[in-house]
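WARN  no MSA supplied for this record, continuing single-sequence
INFO  ligand: adenosine monophosphate
INFO  echoing inputs
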Amino acid sequence: MKIILIGIQGSGKSTQGNLLSEKLGIPYLSSGHIFREMAKEKTPLGRYIKETITAGFLISDEKTLEIVQEYLGRDEYKKGYILDGFPRTVPQAERFENGIKAAIYLKVSDKEALWRLAGRDDENREDDTLHAIKKRIALFHEKTEPVIEYYRAKGVVHEIDGEKSIEDIHSEILEKIGMV
Ligand code: AMP
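INFO  complex generated
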């Protein structure tokens, strides 16, 4: 089963993605995590990724597609996956050919997301400055909301109130994808 999670930073995608992964026994993959790992490499590509994510901008569609598709071609993703953070733009969605069964949109307000992120202390995320977070939220509205419409037209979007409890959201997702 191929599932994508869509939502602004702080909407709970990684929490829900990991819960779903455990429940369904299919791997969870976060494009942001891949890029944060690559940003540690002392190569021109590593430096480009580091600068881009630190500023809160998006990696180019070209590079993103190349990198994410390479991951998804690996054996462990053959039976399906739960993707967090990709596709994030319409060109990425268009060029990402696959049979997505469900696009879960975790909807939280910008205010709630900022509130949650202000209280988060994730030492692995050097890219979490307030400036970068605000930039990412703005880019979500500009570039990623059209992705929701793209998948809505395909009839696979399930919109979920991301401000409920973790357990309620998890149950609702399972219900929407027909796994209960
Ligand atoms: P995230 O962990 O999803 O918030 O991603 C962290 C950062 O990685 C983003 O701010 C972008 O710079 C980059 N990134 C992650 N996924 C994508 C994507 N699909 N397209 C472009 N850039 C991405």
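The chain has a mean pLDDT of 93.
INFO  checksum written, moving to next record
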